[in-house]
Amino acid sequence: MKKSNSFYGYSLIMAFFMLFLGARSQLTPYFYERTCPNLLNIVRYEVEKAFFKEIRMAASLLRLHFHDCFVNGCDGSILLDVSDGEKVSFSNLNSVRGFEVVDDIKRAVEYECSGVVSCADILAIAARDSVVITGGPTWNVLLGRRDGFVSSKAAANISIPSAFDSLYNIIAKFKKVGLDVTDVVSLSGSHTIGLARCAAFNNRLFNFEQTGRPDSSMDEHMLFQLQLLCPNVSSYSADLDSKIGNFTTPLDRDSPIGFPTNDFDNHYFQNLLNRKALLSSDQVLLNSYETKRLIQDYSISTDRFFDDFAKSMVKMGNISPPPGSRGQIRKNCRRVN
Predict the structure, then answer these.
(1) Which single residue of 5, 104, 118, 134 could bond 264 by disulfide (Cβ 3.0 to 4.6 Å)?
(2) Above 50 in pLDDT, residue 178?
(3) Active-site annotation holder among 67, 191, 221, 267
């Protein structure tokens, strides 16, 4: 049967439309070159201002981008103030922070170029600048993301790697979003900066895996220090136990100069090999030949770690929202337009 000219015309229109969508979905470092040419300078200024006010903020902004991308792609959904949203998920509640800094960046960007730059792109740029300001590598941030409409506590609980996950589960969660074992280890190296709450590692201090004893894989001196910081009071004071759970300590505790620093370097991997991992999710990286080999490589070569880390950050930043997600450019990062 001969098809009508209108059918072919319709087909051409659809093919062009799909090609257009594909082109629009490609991220590029130059996305805002004409529409917001001063964007990178604005974000860098605000990140530096926040960092010099509180040096912990660099790690907090980096973590926001990480946790955002693992839930329905890099769409700024972690920033939404909604009931049962990502902010109140297991890995984020009383843990993720830096939202006020993102608000400040968004206000400054909106003043310069209103309605143009997505909150998701702001997170990606701020993460890169946070690594650079602490001495880490740089990379070209690919831009052109749009902001999502949905933030889900349930999706976050399933998708975000937890401090208590096994290596198998961590690798599976990375694989689900298109990341591999090298990405697992290199991105774990971000724990060279930032703090962790007692609640994230006290499972290793007194009753590890219901044995009634501490985790024997932890350095004894470090264990003693952490037990002093996070005493086991759960049996007689739930309220005090909750308060102690929010006490913090540096993820990279034992620095080369004798006290914790906020330098982005490869010392985290040296800690792992010296039994000084803080989180269970860090310790389990030694449980396979492939991950342990990468740890050994990174521990002796900062250049190798920096190179792989930068590549992994670009890959993570490319995690796309589900097909059919249109997205928008939010005016306020905390709510949809």
Answers:
(1) 134
(2) yes
(3) 67
